[in-house]
Amino acid sequence: MKELFQHAATTHGVTVRVAVNFLPEQSRIEAGKWFWVYHIRIENDSDRTLQLVTRHWRITDGRGAVNLVEGEGVVGETPVLSPGQSHDYVSGCPLATPQGSMEGYYTFREIHPDGSQGDSVLVPIPHFPLAAPATAG
């Protein structure tokens, strides 16, 4: 199945693409739990080598409650992207409401050709909705 990236943003030559899907088989609607999976592709179209160092997420549920998530890397990795390279990963998000949204940013560190570290680069993750399809009750 070819995945369609519905959301994208480019900053400092780095493009972040997002595809999101509701997973009814992972959700327990009767228990008030909805689950989405999202696929992220990070494309380095800059002329610099960059290492993804941290992620920062703002997850908002349908009631307006905000959960801030910060951590090192993505799914246990801190990938290094040379110019022209991309990195894909898949993760998930549970919510206690059938709608919500996610957005955030990654912090990258520039890696110079001699291996030394350069400036930090903040790259926004585009806002994307989390919306379960309406179900007949």
From TrEMBL:
InterPro entries in alphabetical order: ApaG-like (IPR050718), ApaG_domain (IPR007474), ApaG_sf (IPR036767)
Species of origin: Novosphingobium humi
Pfam families referenced in this protein's UniProt entry, alphabetically: DUF525 (PF04379)
NCBIfam families: PRK05461.1
PANTHER family linked to this entry: OS05G0170800 PROTEIN (PTHR47191:SF2)
Residues of the ApaG domain: 8-137
Annotated protein name in UniProt: Co2+/Mg2+ efflux protein ApaG
The encoding gene: apaG
